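Exercise 7. Given the encoded structure of a 432-residue chain, write a plausible sequence.
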């Protein structure tokens, strides 16, 4: 298992290393970024006075609106140095565009190399890549580059296609899967229906992307349990985004995604853009290190997480990121209760009769939030709606409206032709 030396250093040494890199980043932004040079000037910021991580609070945060409105002003290189264009998934609005240089692709490969190493991957492993490499999707390319750098085998299969997934597993004997975790119960269900001996296959682990599989205390949530109760494989949770070009991946201990301090500076901020206490959840705010094309300074991701600073038994002393509690913009105020979509997912994933679902949030006639859950299932009996609502009342104290559809109808809505990953949350709320 490869661990970068900086990740085994003391917290003070890690901090010192990051502050040296921060100084270089600020100079680079001053010289090459139209957006940040303007921001420094407008806010009368002397970058030479920003010497510590704590000094970052003197600089205004960067938002998705900034990136949307001034995309070209973030570019720090001539356009002839760009070798790849990627876009975000657009989960929280219009997709954001990022331009990457050859150096940025090397950085991306290194990030996934150390991330897969964190998840106990070696050159002896073969991974079945169950995410797309096309549609301007950074993640699929990142996994491919990282596994290639590590020397592991790669089977580029993409999402869906259960029959082909098992045909490929039988033919190539991969040891791991890279997938959105909610696809695994579908794969298991297909195997059971088609008498496939999946439990004795070559698969030993899965690197799970895009959805949480753990609760804040690191125990498996309903989705994680649904997988492991039916398939004895090791699950590794990850957290990443196009904007940060960096991943937080669990080690074998499974107590949070490890921070790679050579790649990124992370702050956890409150509503007033001030650091939260160590025992409080805050918005993940990142400053990228080593990015050439479009580096970001104090970018607010919108994701709310806890963080943990105690050393891990795996040998790393880096901060660990807890599961995403929710996205700030997706917070729901429903009948006096504050909810985030992951809490709703967890209830639905724990109900055996629910095959798939979409959550729709809208604004009602009095201006408050309403929740409609479209449930896909094989058959509906008069007790199912009551069962679902009882689960919601027991776990979240409130029960949303339920509508039933066939699982095929929900699947079509989840995966429209242009989508790169399943859509499970639709926000129809009006701005008031």
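Solution.
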């Amino acid at each position: 298992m490869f661990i970068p030396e900086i990740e085994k250093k003391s917290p003070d040494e890690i901090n010192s290393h990051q502050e040296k890199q921060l100084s270089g980043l600020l100079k680079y932004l001053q010289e090459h970024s139209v957006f940040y040079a303007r921001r420094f000037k407008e806010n009368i910021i002397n970058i030479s006075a920003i010497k510590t991580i704590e000094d970052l609070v003197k600089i205004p945060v960067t938002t998705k609106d900034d990136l949307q409105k001034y995309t070209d002003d973030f570019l720090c290189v001539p356009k002839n140095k760009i070798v790849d264009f990627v876009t975000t998934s657009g989960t929280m609005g219009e997709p954001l565009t990022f331009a990457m240089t050859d150096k940025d692709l090397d950085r991306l490969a290194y990030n996934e190399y150390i991330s897969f190493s964190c998840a106990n991957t070696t050159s002896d492993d073969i991974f079945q890549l169950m995410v797309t490499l096309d549609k301007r999707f950074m993640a699929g390319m990142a996994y491919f580059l990282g596994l290639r750098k590590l020397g592991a085998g790669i089977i580029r299969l993409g999402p869906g296609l259960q029959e082909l997934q098992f045909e490929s597993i039988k033919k190539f004997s991969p040891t791991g899967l890279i997938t959105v975790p909610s696809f695994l119960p579908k794969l298991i269900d297909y195997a059971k229906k088609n008498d496939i001996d999946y439990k004795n296959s070559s698969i030993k682990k899965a690197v799970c992307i895009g959805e949480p599989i753990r609760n804040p205390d690191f125990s498996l949530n309903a989705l994680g349990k649904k997988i492991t109760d039916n398939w004895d494989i090791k699950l590794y949770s990850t957290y990443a985004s196009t904007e940060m070009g960096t991943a937080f991946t669990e080690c074998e201990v499974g107590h949070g995604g490890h921070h790679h301090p050579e790649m990124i500076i992370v702050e956890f901020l409150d509503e007033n853009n001030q650091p939260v206490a160590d025992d409080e959840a805050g918005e993940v705010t990142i400053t990228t290190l080593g990015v050439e094309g479009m580096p970001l300074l104090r970018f607010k991701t919108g994701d709310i997480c806890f963080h943990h600073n105690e050393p891990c038994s795996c040998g790393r002393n880096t901060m660990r990121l807890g599961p995403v509690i929710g996205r700030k913009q997706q917070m729901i105020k429903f009948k006096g209760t504050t909810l985030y979509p992951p809490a709703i997912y967890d209830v639905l994933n724990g109900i055996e009769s629910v095959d798939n679902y979409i959550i729709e949030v809208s604004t009602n006639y009095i201006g408050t939030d309403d929740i409609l859950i479209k449930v896909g299932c094989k058959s509906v009996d008069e007790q199912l709606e009551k069962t679902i609502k009882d689960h919601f009342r027991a776990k979240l104290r409130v029960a949303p409206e339920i509508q039933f559809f066939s699982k095929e109808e929900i699947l079509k809505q989840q995966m429209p032709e242009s989508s790169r990953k399943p859509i499970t949350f639709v926000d129809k709320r009006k701005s008031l």
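Remark. The two ends are 52 Å apart (CA to CA). Students should compare their own answers with the one above.
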